[in-house]
Structures are given as C-alpha cells and as structure tokens.
Amino acid sequence: MRTPRAVDAGLAGLGGLGAVGGRGEIGGLSGLSGLGALGDPTRTTITRLLLDAPDRALTVGRLTQALQLKQPTVSHHLRVLREAGVVERTPRGREVWYSLTEVIAARLEEWQPLPADAGLSGAVLGRIIDDLGTRFAGIFSRETVQDVVFDSYDLLRARDGDRERALSSATAQFAAERLSAHRVVALHGSKRAPGTPIEVLYVCVQNAGRSQLAAAIMRHLGGDRVRVRTAGSAPIDAIRPVVVTALDEIGVPLGGEFPKPLTDDVVRAADVIVTMGCGDACPVYPGRRYLDWPVSDPSGQPLDRVREIRDDIDMRVRGLLDELFG
C-alpha cells in the first residue's frame, strides 16, 4: 500500500506543497493545467484512493464508502477533478468507473512508494481518524479530521525518516493537539473568552530542550490556568535524556511529550508565543503577544550546565506567570 506521504510526494513533484510552518494544502501545481483542483483535501484523498486501487479505478459507490461521505458530495468532487483533467470517467456495464488520467498516473509513478513495512497501515490511520472523529464529533467534519491526521503523519515521517518511534501514538497525539488548537480558533477567534485557559506556545529549534523545559515547568506551575503547547522549527526525533533528568530532579514531569514541527494552527491558537533561538520561524498574527527569550541551547551540554539553563527558564516562566495572573 502507498502511504499518504508517498502519494503527497508525487503530488508535490507535480507542483509543490504550500505551507506556513510545515506542510499545507496542495496549491497551484505548475506544468499541468487544472491541478489546482487538488487543493481540496477530499480531492487529494480521492487521488490517493484511485492510485491505491487494484486496477486504479473506483466507482462513486466505492469512493463514498471509503470516504464516509454522502454520494452527492463525492460526485461533486469527481466532477471537479474530471473537469480539471485529473480523472476520467469510463462506463463498464451498468456502472461508471473513475480513474486517474494517463498523464497524471504516469507522473505519480515517477515517485517510488515507501517500503510496505515503513510507515503506518491504512487500517491504523483509519482507526486514528475514527477515534479523533468521535472525540471531535459535532466540532469538525470527518474530512477535516482526516486531513489533519494525514498531514500530522507526514510531518512526523519527515522528521523521523526511517526511524519508527511509536509513530502511531505520536501521530494521534500530534493530530489531537492540532485539532484542539483549531477548536480554540473556531470557538474564540483571536480573542480569548473569559474564564478559559491562557494558551501559551513555546518554540525553539529542535523542540527537544529549551521549549520542553519551559512548557513542563509552566504546566507544573500554571495548572488549569494555562494550556501549553510546544513546537520546533527543525525538530529532532526525541527529547534529550539530560533534559528529562534535569526536570525530574526538581519534581517536574514531562509526560508523553515529544518533539513536534511548528504548524500554523498552534500559532493561531496561542495568546502568548515564546521563541528561543529560532529567529523569525513563527508567523506573526495580530492580537498575540510575542516574546523572545535569549536562553542557551542545552544540546551537547553536561548536566551541570543544563541545570543552569533549567533554572534560567524556571525564573522566566515564573515571571511570565506573575505577569499573566499576578
């Protein structure tokens, strides 16, 4: 089975993926007219399904079942793709089958799929989508949940390469955090509702040291008054053990945190954004408070030095909490 990342790589080759702080929807694809139709996540998924089908063709009914959408909605997307020259329609007896056009299929074939054992199966991704669909029922459509799960999966795969470190649970957690951020923006926009937690985002380069130290301490001290997220402009695959040790020494739990890429949704949800060493990687939106802390990077440092960095961050976090709630 081709993974979403393999198919998206092919789509990127046809014209590129536009993103702020990560990957985003498939945008204007140069060189082949009409491929801007793939900017919709449902149509991207239809392309994936057609490419994965045994004979590269599916009926509206089969696509409706796979997407769990209403038939008129699927028919609409197929019509757009057909008018754009991405798919073609072929009657077979009493059924009409849809397949990718020869030129689109040929271009996607230039991109080799990942090995079958390198990545999550469709069943696992489907379970994650179903579970998060239940969790966010009445807030987001299945299409939105599916798109965020696929994008989160791809971002983590890009971070980890061939290293499989609890990818399924990491994908589920990362997607859930991003959907929660989407929910904050959907419900409150750029203004926080009275009585709701203050949203704080800590960003460093690798999301494996400074931002994790700051977030853990703020969660520990701020409790339910704050909702804290972290991200990295160039995240690595795991939090540094010396950081975990430095936090454990002062009784601050790290929980199930792990390095995550910086995405636009968590920036939009934040009331306060604190950067440490990542320059202008964060998009700037009005109504947010931006702080830049000149804190040393613990990467490659001995434990004694990391303790000093931890204590510096601890002092800054306490000062920020006093400003927010004092």
Question: Main traits of this protein?
Answer:
12 helices; Helicase, Ruva Protein, domain 3; 3 domains; Rossmann fold; 48% helix; Arc Repressor Mutant, subunit A; alpha/beta; 326 residues; elongated
Q: Can you put this structure into words, describing what you see?
A:
The protein is of the alpha/beta class. The chain folds into three domains: 4-109, Winged helix-like DNA-binding domain superfamily/Winged helix DNA-binding domain (Arc Repressor Mutant, subunit A), CATH 1.10.10; 119-188, Corynebacterium glutamicum thioredoxin-dependent arsenate reductase, N-terminal domain (Helicase, Ruva Protein, domain 3, Orthogonal Bundle), CATH 1.10.8; 190-326, Rossmann fold (3-Layer(aba) Sandwich). The chain has helices at residues 4-13, 41-52, 60-67, 71-83, 102-109, 122-135, 142-160, 167-188, 210-222, 241-249, 264-269, 303-325, and strands spanning 57-59, 87-92, 95-100, 198-204, 226-232, 272-276, 289-292. Helix 9 links the parallel strand 4 and strand 5 (226-232). Helix 3 (60-67) packs across helix 4 (71-83) and helix 6 packs parallel to helix 8 (167-188).
